[in-house]
Design brief:
InterPro entries: ARM-like, ARM-rpt_dom, ARM-type_fold, Armcx_regulator. Its main location: mitochondrion. One of its GO terms (cellular component) is mitochondrial outer membrane. It is a single-pass membrane protein. By secondary structure, this protein is mainly α. Helix content is about 60%, strand content about 0%. The chain contains 18 helices and no strands. The protein has helices spanning about 1-25, 35-40, 85-110, 120-130, 135-150, 155-160, 165-170, 175-190, 195-200, 205-215, 220-230, 245-255, 255-270, 275-280, 300-315, 335-340, 340-350, 355-375.
């Protein structure tokens, strides 16, 4: 009896493990990654339920298969050996299960979506895998499944109620950059929910530190910037990034075009908040920032940077705060804007830019700068 019991437990373990692996491979089938709306843009509006329209993430691609639209990933158990009668039956059962699962998913899925929508029970199983597994490939697959489902508003609430926020946030401590990126993407999709944002704010400092210290232009850094952009859509948590604004300007100056644009979207959120104007002006900026105006930089980068400067100029009450202007240190954004002649020369460097919109924005920026920062000079 003792031997039979051991054999039974071993068999049960194999079946459970096989089912978990099959579940992961089935749940992670989807289409190509869609860009997150909130991370790709600046501020967005919360809907009546506290959600913003978030994008979907899917990192699985079947491009190598010409007929991938009608195929599912089938996991065969270890005992389904080719060439044996038992193996043939086991493989047939596995294919039948995959077909039934695929049809069931299609019935529950949105008519306009090919993504797999999981039930609360299935989401709980995936969260258990994230919490218990130490295998990077299992974590990656499970996080992709969660990221797909976190794109749906109703699933964001379910994942939160299942305790998924701290479970996913725990993965931020991993050293595996691929797994960390997937965890950041899941949190990014979840963060477009107002209640989720309030619970995720305790991780903002960690995400911020990881983002500024990650390898420049890496996927982890970009995923972190997108999450911080989502978390600063409203003014509620922006003050938590006050001490990192100088680091963001450093990333903007040193990063590639994609990093620059993502940093600008984050700074644009901050610049639209009057309460953050002083913190932005206090930030230390690289000396290379002015060089952006001396060459034909990307049009979108120039326009966004000018909008940020305009918002700061509009939100900071220069006359009311005149007694405190001596508190700003050399090398700060305040001095960059305060030195009107130097700033004007730099802006004039792109006055001959071929794009008409850039010319208009430059003229508007210089007019506001003269009006608000130097009202006495006009007398």
């Amino acid at each position: 009896m003792g031997y039979a019991r051991k054999v039974g437990w071993v068999t049960a373990g194999l079946v459970i493990g096989a089912g978990a692996c099959y579940c992961i491979y089935r749940l992670t089938r989807g289409r190509k990654q869609n860009k997150e709306k909130m991370a790709a843009g600046g501020p967005g509006d919360m809907d009546d339920t506290g959600d913003c329209s978030g994008g979907r993430y899917n990192d699985w691609s079947d491009d190598d298969d010409d007929n991938n639209d009608n195929k599912s990933i089938v996991w065969y158990p270890p005992w389904a050996r080719i060439g044996t009668e038992a193996g043939t039956r086991a493989r047939a059962r596995a294919r039948a299960r995959a077909t039934r699962a695929h049809r069931a998913v299609q019935k529950r899925a949105s008519p306009n979506s090919d993504d797999t929508i999981l039930s609360p029970l299935e989401l709980q199983k995936v969260l258990c895998l994230v919490e218990m597994s130490e295998k990077p490939y299992i974590l990656e697959a499970a996080l992709i499944a969660l990221g797909n489902n976190a794109a749906y508003a109703f699933n964001r609430d379910i994942i939160r109620d299942l305790g998924g926020l701290p479970i996913v946030a725990m993965i931020l401590n991993t050293r595996d950059p691929i797994v960390k990126e997937k965890a950041l993407i899941v949190l990014n999709n979840l963060s477009v929910n107002a209640e989720n944002q309030r619970r995720l704010k305790i991780y903002m400092n960690q995400v911020c530190d990881d983002t500024v210290t990650s390898r420049l232009n890496s996927s982890v850094q970009l995923a972190g910037l997108r999450l911080l952009t989502n978390m600063t859509v409203t003014n509620e948590h922006q003050h938590m990034l006050a001490n990192s604004i100088s680091d963001f300007f450093r990333l903007f100056s040193a990063g590639n075009e994609e990093t620059k644009l993502q940093v600008l979207k984050l700074l644009l959120n901050l610049a639209e908040n009057p309460a953050m104007a002083r913190e932005l002006l206090r930030a230390q900026i690289p000396s290379s920032l002015g060089s952006l105006f001396n060459k034909k930089e990307n049009k979108e980068i120039i326009l966004k940077l000018l909008i940020i400067f305009e918002n700061i100029n509009d939100n900071f009450k220069w006359e009311e705060n005149e007694p405190t202007q001596n508190h700003f240190s050399e090398g700060s954004l305040f001095f960059f804007l305060k030195e009107f002649q130097v700033c004007a020369d730099k802006v004039l460097g792109i006055e001959s830019h071929h794009d008409f919109l850039v010319k208009v924005k430059v003229g508007k920026f210089m007019a506001k700068l003269a009006e608000h920062m130097f009202p006495k000079s006009q007398e």
